[in-house]
Amino acid sequence: MKKKGQTGERGKSLLPISSKAKNRTFSRLQGRLAPLAFLAPALIVVTLFFFIPLVMVFILSFTNLDMTNFGILEWWRPANWSLDNYAKIFTNKFFPKILGNTLIYVALTLAFFNVGMALVIALITTHINRQAGFAFRALWLLPRITPVVVYIMMWKALSGPAPMGIINNFLGLLGIGRGEYLLNTHPWVFVILVNGFIGASFGMILFSSAIEAIPKDYTTASKVDGATTWQTIRYVVLPMIKWPLLFVTTYQTLSLLTSFEQIMLLTDGGPRLYQTEVWALTAYHRALTSYFGNTQWGYGSAWAVALVVIGIIMAIIYLRVFKFGELVEEPKIDRL
Amino acid sequence: MKKLRAKSGIMVVALAVGLLLVGGAVSYTQETETVTVRCRAKPPMENWRGDNFLLAAEELNADLKAAGDPRRVEIELIQDNMDWGPYLSEFVLGFGAGEAPDIWLTGHEYIGAQAEAGRIIALDEVLKEFPTFNLIIDGLWDSTTYKGKTWGIPQDAEARPLYFNKALLKKLGWSDAEIAALPGKIEKGEFTLYDMLETAKKAVARGIVELGNGFWTRPKNGPDFTAFYYAFGGKTIDPATGKLVFDTAAGLKYYQFFYDAAQTYGSMGCLGLGWGDAWHPGVSGSKVLFWVGGTWQWAEWAELYLKDLGGEAYMWENFGFGLIPAAEKGDKPNSLTHPLAYLISSQCKYPDLALALIAKVSNYGPNTRHAIASTHLGILKGQTEYKFYKVSRLLSETLYMLDYTTFLPNNPYWGPYSTITYEALAAAVGGEFTPEEAVDFVVDGLQRELGDKVIIR
Fold it and tell me: Of B39, B142, B45, B55, which is closest to residue B357 (Cα–Cα)?
């Protein structure tokens, strides 16, 4: 006795053809909708809190919406759009300074900390006792997990004038400096240190895991062949962690380009006019702060949109120059 | 007997129920209205700005009850020391969301923009219903007037004196008599801005103060700089059109002064410093010879920075103050007052209650409490004769400065104007602009940002 819906001996369905077609359509539909249903919550959140604001910021960048005309200017009407804000950015007398600051900030932080220091820590901690290496890496994570305001307060205290500032105490012992407030005399050093100490931990984790994944045979073989430590690093380790190196460089460049909160809390772009002001901080300052409250949302948005465009261009260049496609494709041996 | 007891029991219950019903009815007809008061105040000195409303609400409720008005007020006070920029954004965006506070205490220079946007209400008609407001000094109403209407009630005033360090002047060889005579010489126009810089230069040359510490202004953009622009003959507003004005001749002298101060006279090492970590410790710690500050900072230094050394007593011993000197010999010195004002939001449900509360806090007692605690000048006629106001020596000794005071303009575009003129000043101080380049930058920036909303002379 066969029940309804069971398949016959020769694989024939006992259901009428129209029911079969319906079932097939339903299951096909279900197959297509199920992933969408799973994606829906994330899709809604991303649309509401990322895409819509992004489109709004893009539109705002063509308007002169600010605190004085908020509620009056119909910023959504194309008649009120123009390229004036972009013209203002590139003709701003302080534009070269802000651009230069951004390049210095990104290049130095990246070279000395986010990639350089991260690599050094990873190499050292993977070549010492495993537990000690782990503990050392955990210490380097502290700046990243410390709330940013507390972290900056600590740095402000560290760089304070003598006799309160700890750094000044050490410099005094060495006979260096006059005990002045170091954040005012050497702001760039602190901007880079403060950001670098946080940024280094990201690369450190990726590089450490990549180095630990290198089969020990390679390093052992290089030692047997008489390679020095430096030669082992240069010719064995570095080529094998090429992908994480390039990924960290790309990711951290883009991340540094858009980061400003530490600089804002530390120097707020000063102490002298635009001395440590970077692009992202300018966007924030123009759009959201001003002593007398003349926040220029349209103009600030233009700074932000221009930065996004720069970021996208840089990402494309990185992808092309570093040939990311080749790096992530399947090994040729697997394709044979 | 039992019946009597039962009857009286029933009567007691009935009476109780009756009383409850009557009470319920009374309480039912009473309406409690929440009035939101938003104040910016530096704790603990300026807390009376908002705290006075808590006491005023009790008095107003008594008045309402006596008048048979069923309404009662309850205060929701929001008070902190937020920066002015975010403070303004909060109000504007809050208004956009329909959540503006009923009473908003703010700088008078914001009135123009808020009145234009319809976020605050004009008060001319309703002010007449509260005679207390007649007590406010007539001149202060000018600061809350925009396009012929009154939009706010002055809350406090202050002077921005030029402070000097007596101990450092003594080190420079000044006698006690010379130091005591300095405020008078400034008032008569005998001690000019450049005389001050010359003195500062000597102090730097002799190592009495460090390079850059001869003369300081505030470390960031703010109202004080406008007083110097006025000193060089600058104007900020055209009375005929109400438009902002930038005077290039006065501007050039103004930027030349700050350029010279930094490049030649060992001064202006103050721009960009943090208030709490460097500026206040610098001036109160006797590291600076001359500096411009506000009378309210006197209380701040005494309370927060010099309490251990004796507070005000130490300050009277070591600090002196006068007007901001004239630019040329014989000219009039000046000061700048930046009155705060209570504004009433157009989203306020009961403006009459809000105004009644403001009237209560604008009287001698409450206003003097604030004036004394925060060393702000009083705003009421005859307040100097009020017994409890007289106890403050600072307020008495700085009162004459109101005769020389100036104001910021009440113009919606003061914000961009101020940002551009300050950026030029900071660049001149930093040696990035010559005075001429600073003026060109301002003219270019103002024309680009404000177009025909500003007059360049």
Answer: B55
ipTM of the complex: 0.76
pLDDT of A334: 56
Amino acid A2: pLDDT: 43
Query: Which chain A residue lies closest to B97 (C-alpha atoms)?
Result: A71
What torsion, rounded to 10 degrees, do the Cα atoms A160, A162, A166, A172 define? Answer: 130
Fold of B9-151+338-376: D-Maltodextrin-Binding Protein; domain 2 (3.40.190)
- Asked if B361 and B56 count as a contact pair (C-beta separation under 8 A), the reply is yes
Classified as helix, coil or strand, B215 is strand
Interface contact A291-B277, CB threshold 8 A: no
Which of B416, B415, B408, B412 is closest to B447 using CA atoms?
B416
Whether residue A313 is contained in a domain is answered as no
Does domain B162-337+410-456 fall under CATH 3.40.190.10? My reply is yes
Task: Report CB contact under 8 Å: B272, A273.
Answer: yes
Inter-chain residue contact B89 with A294, CB threshold 8 Å:
no
The answer to the question of residue A35 being in a domain is: no
Alpha-carbon distances, residue B442 vs A203, A229, B407, B410, B433 (angstroms): 45, 60, 21, 20, 11
What pLDDT is stored for residue A1 in this prediction?
A: 42
Q: Is residue B183 within 8 Å of residue B365, measured between CB atoms?
A: no
* Domain membership of residue A103 as a residue range: 92-289
Low pLDDT (below 50) residues in chain A: 1-11
Nearest CA in chain B to A185: B273
The per-residue pLDDT for A325 is: 73
Count of structural domains, chain A:
1
| pLDDT beneath 70, residues of chain B | 1-29
Give Cβ neighbours of residue A92 (< 8 Å, ≥ 6 apart): A98
CB-CB neighbors (< 8 A) of A68 in chain B: 113, 116-117, 412-413, 415
Spatial separation of the C-alpha atoms in residues B127 and B132, rounded to whole Å: 9
